[in-house]
Amino acid sequence: MSVVPSLFDIQAVQKLRKLAVLLLGLALIGATLFLQSPGGVEGHWHEAVEAVGLGAIALAIVGRAWCSLYIGGRKKAEIVDRGPYSLSRNPLYVFSFIGAFGIGAQTGQVTVAALFVLTAWVIFRATVRKEEAWLSRQFGETYAAYMARTPRFMPRFSAWRDEDELVVRPAFFLLTLRDGLAFLIAIPLFEAIDTAQSEGWLHVLAYLP
């Protein structure tokens, strides 16, 4: 006798994902206290990487908000396969990867930015596997067909399909926008770390490009 998956299953996965992001994010931030880019915080490399990271954060915030216009409140009720969800099954996570790069880049180090992306990828990949199992049981052949034509992460731009009209749920849009704006916390946080290192309050142990 098969067991019908409960809504709790997917909610538990999301809670674990958020906890993992928080704990590993704090661990990475702790490591950056003792890392610096070659040339120091005023160097051209440091400033350039920060600027690229700021652009990545802006793109992540806008992209996640765009995705929420399509998926807000619908993920557990139906298969959304239009707009960004026609390109990738998990565009919210794709934009989160971009945001993770932007956060790490605020250290002025591409190496650290890459570590942030890698950490996000490990967490979201595990999350997606659980979500896919739940969605497969919940939606059967409909989801199997969607999986067959749509990549898990990397967008397939030739597959673009859109709606003529969207029913927008403002509460979900604003919630996603709020969560995305949290990426901006990285800017003053890493500026404070840069200042502490410049003043000698934190001892730099390694210089990474």
Count of DSSP helices? 8
The best one-word shape is elongated
Q: What structural category do the secondary elements indicate?
A: mainly alpha
Q: Tell me the major beta sheet.
A: 2 strands, parallel
The helix content, as a percent range, equals 55-70%
Question: Distance N terminus to C terminus?
Answer: 56 Å
Q: What's the mean pLDDT score?
A: 87
Put the structure in a nutshell.
With 209 residues, the chain is an all-alpha fold. Helix content is 66%, strand content 2%.
Written description of the protein model:
- There is one protein chain.
- The protein has 209 residues and is mainly alpha-helical.
- Helices cover 66% and strands 2% of the residues.
- The protein is built from 8 helices and 2 strands.
- The protein has a two-stranded parallel sheet with strand order 1-2.
- Helix 5 runs antiparallel to helix 6 (141-149).
- The protein starts with 6 loop residues before the first helix and ends with a strand.
